[in-house]
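Hi Y.,

Following your request, here is the sequence exactly as I used it, all 414 residues.
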Amino acid sequence: MNSPITTGVGQAADSPVQPQTPQSTILLVEDDLVTRAAMAARLTRLGYRVLEAENGQAGLAVAGRERPDLLIVDWMMPEMDGPTFCEAVRRDPLLKSSQILLMTSHDKPAQIAEGLIRGADDFLSKSASKQELTARVLSGLRTSRLVRELETAGKNLESSMSLLQANQAEMEADLQSAADFVRSMLPAQGSPVQGVSLAWEYQPALTLGGDLFGVMAIDAERLGLYILDASGHGVSAALRSASLMTFLRAENMLQLIGSYDPERVLFEANRRFPLSAEGDYFTLWVGQFHLPTRTLSYASAGHHGVLLSPAERPCRWLTRPSSPLGFDPGATYSSDHITLAVADRLFLLSDGIYEASSPTGEPWGRWRFQQAIETQRQSSLPTSISHCFTEARRWHEQCDFFDDAAVVGLEFTV
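Below is the corresponding structure, written out as tokens. Let me know if you'd prefer a different format.
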């Protein structure tokens, strides 16, 4: 196999039409030396870098090594004819952007169709004028350049997508780590203090939720409990909630105000968590249960999701009209006090559970939640809570909720 011949770049004296890409490379595959030399000279005068090959096999070797922009290939050649050469080029993924002009004296429709089917992009008559040669070469190079620009853009897009996916995976891993940390701060299910059973179910709308809750022993005689709801969704709401959750820890309240009195807890929370510049705020319900007297003291800052389910009396919602945290830095909050009986149950819930809407847009509602609780009065506490989620999902006709859904249940067993 002979080495390809590269001819130099000359001036475009053959035609007034100048090539758009002076550095474009053209491979001329022609077995006839005279025809090949004449064509190469014409292309060189047009300003192109011209490579030559005397047959199809040599042409494939040059094409694979040089990746020319345009290939001009004779139809009739020994060993490998032009259409077969076209097929071989089309099988090479590195050459898919190269354009092929099939040079022939054939002008019959069936022969033209065969050439196109087997991989040619255009035809060039061996008797073509200088003007036609220039026009068809420029057309082929424009197409090649466009295909390669698209190819480059596709590779850049693929690279960007890979980088984006890597960043997305890293962000999701970070979010999951944050979610695991926040979940580790939630109370352990079981018995936080003697005589009280605790169970809960929690399904954030996103990986990281903003509706959180806590149940903790304050001292040997008192149990603190709260549920909070951050306006908005996403990372910002979750981070703000985690900050408030840390603030509400028992040891922090004892150090700051000396007790877990609901009125004073809400007063300090309201003062320290003002309305944000974006209008974000919290609702918060805080309770303290005194075990010796079985007295529950509670106060609310705009949170309406606490239901008392007595063993022998109708259910009642433990709420009163109040404003959320942060709207009035000097606001005060009032506590209510009730005495709980053995087997009474208390449910703290986020609005995501009872605001789950049907396909027609109707919320499940607090009264349907109350019905679900009442029908499960003889079931265990975890079963009762699970039943609420099942009924809410059935109403919602989806497994996931649009907002964080949490139900915390306490049963007073002594």
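The chain is about 40% helix and 25% strand.

Thanks again,
Q.
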